[in-house]
Design brief:
Elements lengths: L5 E6 L5 E7 L2 E8 L12 H23 L8 E7 L3 H18 L3 E5 H7 L16 E6 L4 E8 L2 E7 L5 H11 L7 H8 L22 H17 L3 H32 L3 E5 L6 H14 L2 E3 L11 H12 L17
Parallel strand pairs: 1-4, 4-5, 6-9, 9-10
Antiparallel strand pairs: 1-2, 2-3, 6-7, 7-8
Length: 340
């Protein structure tokens, strides 16, 4: 007889409708419905996102249960993203999750989306999968956030550094739009950079104290460079696209690595992980592994399916909260800004 807990995770913080089923922290299904409608607008349109979530959530949850091979009456709890994110999108997922939990008479568990990205490292496909040991440092990088988090346990985390303005992922996306790449541009900058010279253009790196980041000045520097060069040569971007991408990516990753190296040395922590959508970036992944080898770190890099927004990480976070009896009430409302 199975004594584990089946946790349904629901993620709807932005433009991906996702549902997953975990047996404790073992991922049995991880289903994501992407929203192509935003591509023509060059970014996520909140109203369109929430409407798409409404259309997608029932079939996505149904498919997650089917792939896991269980019925909803076997669920022990439902974990859902409470925030941060787009409020309209969050409301769809949170209202559905709380309603289903009420109907099944099981607990609902509210989850911080950013904490769940970190706990994605504990989402396993088989028992032999390695997971980080505590304490560890996590560099969490996404379109909306850039943070360094000291993780003492699944339920004890502290932000020790974060961006003071723009996030690294936002810088990737905004610059990609300026140089004419379709949305989402971050992966395309990564792809084009493989054919370019990372030292072709020198962009300014921010000089912020402690473990904090700033990407606003860098972003402005890149845009000014492109504007000035295109004034002299209207074909500048087309002729230098790969070099621009490589130089942009090289500078952003250097800023990220400088801070995580400083934090690891100062705090004498030897286990370092990355999380969030930008953790899929090939240069960040390779640089972290190379630095880890040089510094004697234990490095953990998430599988691609757990880098971007997904519900497996929500279900795993829910598993840890379930074990600590941290359940939600109907009064817990979605919040666009979720303070730790």
């Amino acid at each position: 007889m199975n004594n584990g807990k089946y946790i349904l995770g629901i993620e709807s913080s932005c433009d991906d409708t996702a549902a997953a089923v975990c047996l404790d922290n073992m991922v049995l299904s991880n289903v994501i419905a992407n929203q192509k409608v935003h591509e023509q607008y060059g970014g996520v349109v909140p109203e369109l996102a929430s409407r798409a979530h409404q259309a997608n959530i029932v079939p996505v949850v149904t498919e997650a249960l089917r792939q896991a091979g269980i019925e909803k009456k076997e669920l022990s709890a439902i974990a859902y993203t409470r925030g941060p994110g787009l409020l309209g999108s969050l409301l769809v997922g949170s209202c559905f999750a709380k309603s289903l939990a009420q109907a099944l008479n099981i607990p609902a568990i509210e989850i911080n989306h950013m904490q769940a990205h970190i706990l994605a490292h504990f989402a396993i496909r088989k028992q032999s999968d390695a997971t980080p040991t505590f304490p560890f440092l996590c560099l969490t990088v996404s379109g909306g956030h850039t943070q360094i988090v000291k993780v003492e346990s699944p339920l004890q985390m502290k932000i020790i550094g974060q961006t003071l303005d723009d996030a690294a992922g936002e810088a990737f996306d905004k610059i990609s739009k300026v140089i004419g790449l379709p949305y989402p541009g971050g992966p395309l900058i990564d792809k084009n950079s493989k054919l370019g010279n990372p030292h072709a253009f020198k962009f300014n790196k921010s000089n912020i104290a402690n473990y904090d980041f700033s990407f606003s000045g860098f972003k402005t520097n890149v845009m000014n460079c492109i504007h000035n060069e295109t004034q002299k040569n209207e074909n500048f971007i087309e002729q230098n696209l790969n070099d621009i991408c490589a130089s942009v990516q090289h500078t952003i990753i250097n800023m990220l690595m400088d801070k995580i190296i400083k934090a690891a040395i100062d705090l004498q922590i030897k286990t370092v992980v990355i999380a969030g959508g930008v953790s899929a970036n090939s240069l960040l992944r390779s640089r972290l592994q190379e630095t880890g080898n040089e510094m004697g770190w234990n490095v953990f890099i998430p599988p691609f399916e757990f880098c971007t927004d997904n519900a497996a990480m929500i279900a795993v976070a829910g598993y840890f909260k379930y074990n600590d009896n941290q359940f939600s009430s109907l009064a817990d409302s979605a919040t666009a800004r979720y303070e730790w």
